[in-house]
Amino acid sequence: MPLDTSLVRKQFKVIGTRVRRPDGIDKVTGRAKYGADAFAPGQLIGLVLRSPHAHARIKKIDISKAEKLQGVKAVITAADLPDLTGGDRGMRDILENCMARSKALYDGHAVAAVAAVDAHTAKQALKLIKIDYEVLPHVTDVDEALKPGAPLIHDDIFTDGIEPKPTKPSNFCKLAEYGHGDVEAGFKEADFVIEKSYKTEQTHQGYIEPHACLANVSPDGVAELWVTTQGPFVYRNHCAALLGLDANKLRVTASEIGGGFGGKTHVWAEPLALALSRKANRPVKLTMTRDEVFRATGPTSSASIDVKVGVKKDGTVTAAFAELRYQNGAFPFTWAEFGAMTAFACYDFKNVKTVSRDAVVNRPKCAAYRAPSAPIAAFAVESTMDMAAKAIGMDPIDFRIKNAAREGTKSSYGPVFGPIGIGPTLEAAKKHAHWNAPLGENQGRGMACGFWFNFGGQTCVDLNVTPDGSVTVALGTIDVGGSRASMALAVAEELGVAYEQVRCVVADTSSLGHNDMTDGSRGTFSSSMAAVDAARKAIHTMRERAAKIWEIPLDEVEWIDGQAKAVGEKHGNKAPLSIKEIAAQAANTGGPIAGHSEIVADGAGVSFATHICDAEVDPETGRTSIKRYTVIQDAGKAMHPSYVEGQYQGGAAQGIGWALNEEYIYGKDGRLQNAGFLDYRIPVCSDLPFIDTQILEIPNPNHPYGVRGVGETSIVPPLGAIGNAISNAAGVRLNHVPMSPPRVLKAIKDAR
After folding, report:
1. In whole angstroms, what is the distance from residue 515 CA to residue 509 CA?
2. 44 to 35, 80, 235: CA distances (angstroms)
3. Rounded to two decimals, what is the model's pTM?
4. pLDDT tens-digit profile of 571-613?
5. Is 583 left (phi over 0), alpha (psi -120 to 50) or beta?
6. What's the fold here for domain 303-454+605-751?
7. What top-level class would CATH report for the domain 35-136+210-257+264-296?
């Protein structure tokens, strides 16, 4: 029976309060266990040998000397991970990314791995592995990769989305188009047409905890994996498939997670640790170095985008077009397509079209980074929208309000919007003190809008009422930003008990049904739907028990404020029964009291935000400092406002780093030159202003409490808002991210 969401609750007792976080004490005292904290008696240390070439054919691997080194217990190559994917292209790419087969496809691609009694011995063993490479031409730039005659990375990629399908392989993975209306006719109606090209460089999520796991495979094929991950069930399924294990024989337990932001949604070294353990018949612990994290795990795409916007003098946008070219790393995916879907989603345009071109290059396999692809597209679109507003002399917020999407708008990517928050965030931005504050010398103010779809997906929750009346909730969704607190709040609200009476834990894959990744801003949305459903089932059971205790019909028992109450005048002498009193009699009334829920959480509400930024640019050096920053975003309903504000601030902080400093720098040899936090500069406290937040609540009608996901949208507007602020401060349009001092200074000098 589906969860009833027909009436979104408006009044709450605990939802929306700022209760204490359940993981706080463990994290500040160091008791919380992360990926590298896992330990097993007799464990070995695993290390991975990685390609020093961007593109090279592996002619021969000699592991004989490494295998003979004292203390080495296992050495593996691709031969130890046979292809069991049955022709599934996606799984085959995952397998090949974990361990190179015939070719190394990027600098850092794994080619062999060892397990030894200690790290020193493992390092010695890596040096003894001899590999004969045939170095091949490489390509790391998306535009270069799409040119005829570019070095071919795969000989079996034939562009999807083109009819008839090409017969010649290329680096062009997929073509996709979205939109409606007639853009050419729309441009003819325009008084002004603004065209601009943009580039964004590749960035990494910058999570503080590197990838780490402990694998243990016994001779009977039963295996365990302790790992830092955003999705233990997906890790289980992928690892089991790649190693030929039954999924029920692989138990995956997730640690606390020291950041992920989309980067811990793929398996990287975990199948290698399992393969080493299986071969050595010992537990194997594998922890990546920071260099490995940068060179061999999934950063975001770099991209090249052309945008064209037509506008009338009264501010009406008559047409909008964008072509987006994204690189996917060495393996095909649809990151450009996501950019095409999100590019113009904030607006109600009569004529709109986006074209996406996904390409493979000799870089690591790309992964999600918080609203993947959307920040890149928003930088290009929001910069062009600002230029269009300037062309007609209109305030940039008023211009966007005039063209904003609203309930009933057919979105640029297809669906018709229900109740949405883009208009309210823009109205709030216009009234905000920040928008009307004075600016100093060499300072500029910018704003931008952002959108993300959000996602629900498969979710499973177990709720158990203990004999003393307290409640435990087992979740399968990894807590990356406060979901344990939010779930406890949801259960407490539904049951009518105190927040402190509920404890939530993240279960392993053998203890609960499948749960999708914690991605797509689905954590709180989907798990709270399942938690509410489980709580309602437990309430039904407790009403049945109360009816049995009182010996009255079930329909004469109501659940009010955490108690069973007998309704009707004839039951006036029956005192209400609390959860504790009902639980105490459970053994005599039917046994344990529980609620279980398994759902596909459909109806995730789309999310919108508007950001305001003040930037100061030093005209002599090009250095930019952010002086003030404001995030205004629709949360649907903020379950725990402090966590919501933290998500807003975290996304903005990451966006500031992306906009100003962060980028992968590749040399002519195709090797990454800045694989570490010393040279890949993420923002520190001194780089950031206080980030002000304003939570709006436009309820999502598809959730019983009106919740929308909030974790990703906050990273979408910063590139555009900061780009507009810098351009206003410097007096010249910036079109290349990151807008680092050398790029800003060059733009200023070129303008002079």
Report:
1. 9
2. 15, 18, 21
3. 0.97
4. 778 899 999 999 999 999 999 999 999 999 999 999 999 999 9
5. alpha
6. Aldehyde Oxidoreductase; domain 4 (3.30.365)
7. alpha beta
